[in-house]
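Researcher: Here's the sequence for the chain we discussed earlier.
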Amino acid sequence: MSTILIIVALVAVLVIVAAAVLYLGPGKGGGRRGLKRRFGPEYDRAVAGHDGDTKAAERELNERVKRHGSLKEHPLTNETRELYVAQWTVLQERFVDSPDGAVAAADQLLARLAGERGFPEAARYEEQLAALSVHHAELVGGYRRVHRAAHGQASTEELREAMVDGRALLEALVTARPEDTRGHRAGVAGIGRRVHLLKPKGSGA
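Model: Thanks. This is the structure I predict for it:
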């Protein structure tokens, strides 16, 4: 093979590699496919929020990763973890008599817990939500539903569903590291076993 052909072949390879890098982009796989893998339902929500403009949605999601991707979650002590689990259990029991009050308190509890784990403080809700979406993309929707139910008009069933969805994020946030779950798995998992059975007084169910 002549020198010219070798050079042409090398240039072609470099062009292909460069195109692949640009398509995939930075981060976990990068690009559209990487963002979809990383954000899951949050990706679709971002696209919908930009009226179907995928490029604008991807710019927003990439900006979230840029701002919050390096965040390291602070570990919780066993005592603190157990306290949050106990508080959530109380709120589930409170839901029977006061669904609105229970969900409002659940919203505050999740915000406080997220702040303690190192995410932006509760007073910066949108920024806290964005940071959580980077690290807990599959679960942050539950927190959003709790917050929306706590600050708007919601039916009893919507309030109940918000509590169920919010519990999943709480479980993730109170688990400091995978190796810490052995002694606490039963207690953490147990906080949600009865929530789907809770019926407010006077519901007729």
